[in-house]
């Protein structure tokens, strides 16, 4: 596997210049892609102590445990908000721990000077835009004109793929195109009527220019955000979001480098890469016909296809939210990484077993028998022990419920105050009463949030919460939207059906990379059936399965995770190397591989730990 060595880190003073074009700038169509319209474009320069890849922080600054401070915590500047967003998104995805090997064994976090072009784009039929952002390095490779297009993972903001695509593409002189794919961290404070401008600073709906302003009823309180409240079901359009980001990149290159224009899909290489939801998005983009896309790398993709074994995220997430806390009691506690600490969650998991027994969802008189029943039920629907063990984090941190609440709202295209299970989002006092968000909380949402509450002062409000198993009523309601009856269930299932993937277009090279221990998006439900269907149809899809790899590289900062698992990013970078070499005519596409690895234990990661796909 090729390693990218970091360049020397620079330390200069901050300099950022910005100018804006008028909203509604019409962009001409590129190649065979549909016409594109963007609005609110802002152009910024990032040199002399600032840069595209690390916002001037360098690897040491990204490794810092404390976020870059705002001079005024209630009113950060655009430069401060950007720097903190880049710091948060690097740390939310990559393992930057000193023994983890980033910047030494793999990856790049050196300074890359250049320009950014930020704007809003809207797919046909959508009522709200998604963010698009293009980074053009000063040393853009004119001899090898390339764009790496990257949707954010999860529900992250527009910088959510910077450690994936930026770290690989920018040092090679490629422009990098990002999209938040209709999700993102553009939270809107309903109490104050304040949202986020294109530059990341706060603004009022009355002033206009916001990245997201919901259609909310008069007097609505709390917090709204695009993924849950746009009423657009953004996941149905993930492929089109990726295509629009690529289109915008070509238009930006025409503007940024007029002497080399025009940039078209015929004369510019476009590689799409993403992980998790971003991996699903690039596979959805791979369906779109035409010569606009040259290769795809999808890491641990959330992808749902009409093929044996494939399951929708909403299906297995709501199943796990109900059953997994009890099922985990059947597994050896020593087999699961900490945190979450078993001493903290055991009482809750034991209570869940009793609740499931009372509801007739598991059998047995003892906790051990009930846990075995829940475990057997999950194994019968395709869960592996490896996925359940690493999925303990999703149960322990209550991630399954957070995901299901947001996705139910998105799939059903529900607006503010319309969630079919009564959930909402707001700041809370210590006694759990609702309160308005503070200006300091609101100012950090765009930079700090991963896109789905709870977190950053925004809590998940469960109106059905009641003792003894406080969340069970809400979880039953969420599950019934998948397997129950009624108008709301029909509405949510219709939204999920809109997210069905098709096969990639014929001849498009695709590499799918997935950890065999992934417990958030188990490969048995996602990449494995997708690859099987694509290969059976003769598509150019290759599959790397990585042993001892779970979903979250960032969790490897916890010593117990680092001792058990290897990072996924090295294999995503290696897959990008391989498709790039293939497009250069220097190598064939790799073969399918199961990659043997050796977690680092208590020591430092080594090249031997990672192994290497052929």
How are the SSEs placed, and which strands pair?
Blueprint: E1 18-20, E2 26-27, E3 36-46, H1 58-63, H2 78-93, E4 114-121, E5 130-137, E6 146-151, H3 162-169, E7 175-179, E8 188-189, E9 194-196, E10 202-204, E11 223-224, H4 226-229, H5 238-256, E12 269-275, H6 277-286, E13 295-299, H7 313-327, H8 342-358, H9 367-380, H10 385-390, H11 392-396, H12 399-411, E14 423-428, E15 434-435, H13 439-448, E16 459-462, H14 472-483, H15 487-497, E17 510-515, H16 527-536, E18 541-546, H17 559-564, H18 569-583, E19 593-595, H19 607-610
Parallel strand pairs: 6-7, 6-12, 12-13, 13-17, 17-18, 18-19
Antiparallel strand pairs: 1-3, 2-3, 3-4, 4-5, 5-7, 8-11, 9-10, 14-15, 14-16
Helix pairs in contact: 2-13, 5-6, 7-8, 7-9, 7-12, 7-14, 8-9, 12-15, 14-15
Polypeptide structure, described:
This protein is an alpha/beta fold and 614 residues long. 33% of the residues lie in helices and 15% in strands. The strands form 4 sheets. Strands 1, 2, 3, 4, 5, 6, 7, 12, 13, 17, 18 and 19 form a 12-stranded mixed β-sheet that branches. The protein has a 3-stranded antiparallel β-sheet with strand order 15-14-16, with no helix packed on it. A two-stranded antiparallel sheet has the order 8-11. Helix 7 crosses helix 8 and helix 14 packs across helix 15. The longest helix has 19 residues. It starts with 17 loop residues before the first strand and ends with a helix. The N terminus is likely disordered.
